[in-house]
Amino acid sequence: MDWSLRACSRRGHVTYAPDEPHLRRRLRADTPLGEAWRCLRCGDFTLGPPYGEGPADEAPLVLRGRALRDAAVLRLLALERCARGLLMFLAAYGVWRFKGGKEAVNRAFEEYLPLLTPLADRLGWRLADSKLVHTLHQLLATGTGTLTWLTIGLIAYGLLQVTEGVGLWLLKRWGEYFAVIATSVFIPLEIYELSHKVTWVRVALLVLNLAAVAYIVFGKRLFGVRGGHAAYEAERHEASLLEVRAAGARSGGGAGPPD
What's the CA dihedral at 18, 24, 29, 35 to 10 degrees? Predict the structure, then answer.
């Protein structure tokens, strides 16, 4: 997949007129329909005046190639985090509704369980030993205050996941830090749960979270890794100039105007 062309088809081309004459000539072309400028992202010429101009090293930072792929990965993680947050909100709503109708559910449970016992005995199913019935007994025995705190906890966790997802989707630096910290906090809990019972869902979630933390920390140079924030900002600043030079170089193959 050509990530650059895909991005331009969705967001439009990004053109820029550098002050440096040799770069400006290579990025501009005259056509019967007017001037055209080479897109810094995909390399194609587009009609009309440039969207910006100035020194080459102040050109807008354009995500292309690998950077676009990295952005796509972060946004997939953002969608996964937002989906988790939505599930937590739904769970909180379910607990809240259960808390409000707990007495009615308890009465129905006590009323219908004796009626179902003879039928279950005929089928060879001992309700008294059923894990489902035991779990329902535990839920009905849970105090109202505990259910209230559980609802608050689920809402708080949902907000945490949604905030993490929004930060990643917007490709914000704070979102990357927030995602790493929020994800790392729960990794010991996930390992503890695996020590009690191993399921493919728990293993998949642990692997996903570990991979996400490593990917963001090393790829985005967080917490001083690979030079830290200074190296990250220097890389972004250098990228502006490199994109202009690369776009100008691409025009040397015959697609652009001669020098």
Answer: 40
Return d(Cα 37, Cα 87) in angstroms, integer.
47
pLDDT at position 158 is 93
DSSP string for residues in 24-51: HHHHEEEETTEEEEEBTTT--EEES--S
The CA-atom distances, in angstroms, between 226 and each of 194, 221, 229 are 32, 6, 9
- The pairs formed by 108-117 with CB atoms below 8 angstroms and a separation of 24 or more are 109/136, 109/140
Q: Do residues 193 and 204 make contact, with C-beta atoms less than 8 angstroms apart?
A: no
Structure tokens given for 111: 């009323």
pLDDT in tens, 217-234: 888 888 877 777 677 666
Q: Which of 178, 202, 179 shows the shortest CA–CA distance to 189?
A: 202
Angle ∠(47,53,54) on CA atoms, nearest 5:
155
Instruction: Give the pLDDT band (50/70/90) at residue 119.
Output: low
φ and ψ at residue 215, rounded to 5 degrees: -60, -45
As a whole number of angstroms, the distance between CA 225 and CA 9 comes to 35
Residues β-bridged to residue 35 = 30
